[in-house]
């Protein structure tokens, strides 16, 4: 299959998987059509997405490269269809929890979609397909949110029909994924050659979508490269069998163990020995985890603050949010980040403090219209800060640093932190099980704490050097 056809199919997949007409009105649908209470929605149903996303991500990270991407992309499609089948036809609390589990698996499987095209197109097209994939998902979200809002506002459809249409559209993902070609297993020389990208282009590609899975596969190959003994001497095929049997116990076990530990230190731990990478990774993890929580429960807050006679504009707000933040991410690439280190710390600390106040203001004003405005501004701050932190981390990694691996680890830890926060303060069976507004106040406090944490870390490091 020609690579352009493959890219077109992959982009179609991206548009359709994000074309979820009913997403902006999910909370309202669960309450109005499924007769669940607000406490059940945010305390007993939504937490299952966080848990399943985190738990599914672990095996998916391991298996994606081994099974060559397409089966995991297929898993994403099937999970998404199963999610909407349960949402439309399910009636019990257990079925809604299973619906969120399917959605969590689908979300975790998205990593395969983000890296699939790197395995089927030539390296010279990497930058181009990266842009195509990002735009495909953005277009899908924008069109879905706009269409959903228009259909609901005009009264053409109700919430149930909106989700039935989403199910129908999502079902087309399965034939598309069947048409996608299976990536061929790359030869060792081809993989090595693919890693010889110019440093700047490689950095851009890795930061945008990550290539940690391919890098892990490459590390496995490197560990098998060159049959050498413990002394680094080339293996001689003419040695006698007796000589080989004597040397083998000395080289196989301990060399493998040392090799594994060396790879762990160099590939997983070494990048974080750079204090800027460590500090900004920690900062990024905290704000990302908090914004994940906001995204997951913002509809509940909107519904809580909506008066009986107020109309929902969730779809319109989400479409504007998607459009503005796409513009923010695009413009961020033109912003010079060659600042003195203290300036970047001050800017991001002040910005994070502003985000904390925005979250608190959502609770304080008790107004749906104010919530909408504050939500959009909050995400503009977040995407700007995320772009700054990503660039600072990337520019302070070594030229041959594992960019995708570092950002993959950061995302994984952020999801772990989100799971802990959900278990402690959101889950109805959690330690605190806070009320909805108390949860958002907690997120605000965490944001405020992180705005002081980074400068404090910088100060401690400087004092330690003295």
TrEMBL record:
Swiss-Prot/TrEMBL keywords: Membrane, Transmembrane, Transmembrane helix
Regions that span the bilayer: 46-66, 73-92, 98-120, 132-153, 159-180, 276-295, 315-335, 342-360, 372-393, 405-426, 438-461
SUPFAM superfamilies reported in the protein's UniProt record: MFS general substrate transporter (SSF103473)
An individual GO BP term: vitamin transport
This protein's record includes keyword Cell membrane: no
Statement: the UniProt record of this protein carries the keyword Glycosyltransferase: no
Cross-referenced Pfam families: Folate_carrier (PF01770)
Source organism superkingdom: Eukaryota
Family to which this protein belongs: Belongs to the reduced folate carrier (RFC) transporter (TC 2.A.48) family.
Protein name according to UniProt: Folate transporter 1
């Amino acid at each position: 299959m020609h690579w352009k056809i493959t890219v077109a199919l992959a982009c179609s997949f991206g548009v359709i998987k994000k074309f979820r007409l009913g997403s902006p009105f999910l909370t309202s649908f669960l309450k109005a059509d499924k007769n669940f209470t607000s406490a059940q929605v945010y305390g007993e149903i939504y937490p299952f997405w966080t848990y399943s996303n985190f738990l599914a991500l672990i095996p998916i990270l391991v298996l994606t490269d081994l099974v060559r991407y397409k089966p995991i992309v297929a898993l994403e499609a099937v999970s998404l269809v199963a999610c909407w089948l349960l949402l439309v036809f399910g009636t019990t609390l257990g079925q809604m929890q299973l619906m969120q589990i399917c959605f969590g698996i689908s979300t975790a499987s998205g990593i395969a979609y983000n890296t699939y095209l790197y395995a089927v197109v030539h390296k010279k097209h990497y930058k181009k397909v990266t842009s195509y994939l990002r735009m495909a998902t953005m277009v899908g979200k924008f069109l879905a949110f706009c269409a959903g809002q228009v259909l609901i506002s005009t009264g053409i459809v109700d919430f149930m029909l909106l989700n039935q249409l989403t199910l129908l559209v999502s079902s087309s993902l399965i034939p598309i994924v069947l048409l996608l070609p299976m990536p061929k297993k790359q030869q060792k020389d081809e993989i090595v050659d693919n890693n010889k990208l110019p440093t700047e282009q490689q950095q851009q590609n890795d930061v945008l979508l990550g290539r940690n899975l391919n890098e892990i596969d490459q590390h496995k190959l490197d560990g098998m490269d060159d049959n050498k003994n413990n002394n680094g001497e080339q293996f001689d095929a003419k040695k006698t069998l007796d000589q080989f049997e004597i040397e083998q116990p000395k080289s196989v076990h301990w060399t493998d163990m040392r090799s594994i530990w060396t790879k762990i230190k160099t590939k997983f731990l070494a990048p974080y020995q750079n204090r800027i990478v460590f500090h900004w990774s920690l900062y990024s993890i905290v704000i990302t985890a908090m914004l994940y929580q906001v995204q997951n429960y913002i509809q509940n807050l909107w519904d809580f603050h909506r008066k009986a006679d107020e109309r929902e504009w969730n779809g319109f707000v989400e479409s504007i949010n998607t459009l503005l933040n796409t513009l923010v991410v695009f413009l961020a690439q033109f912003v010079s980040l060659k600042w003195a280190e203290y300036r970047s710390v001050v800017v991001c600390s002040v910005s994070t403090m502003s985000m904390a106040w925005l979250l608190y203001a959502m609770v304080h004003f008790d107004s749906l219209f104010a919530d909408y405005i504050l939500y959009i501004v909050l995400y503009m701050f977040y995407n700007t800060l995320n772009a700054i932190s990503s660039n600072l981390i990337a520019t302070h990694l070594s030229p041959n640093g594992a960019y995708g691996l570092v950002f993959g680890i950061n995302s994984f830890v952020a999801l772990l932190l989100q799971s802990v926060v959900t278990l402690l303060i959101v889950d109805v069976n959690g330690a605190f099980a806070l009320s909805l507004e108390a949860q958002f106040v907690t997120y605000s406090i965490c944001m405020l704490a992180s705005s002081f944490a980074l400068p404090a870390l910088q100060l401690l490091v400087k004092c330690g050097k003295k």
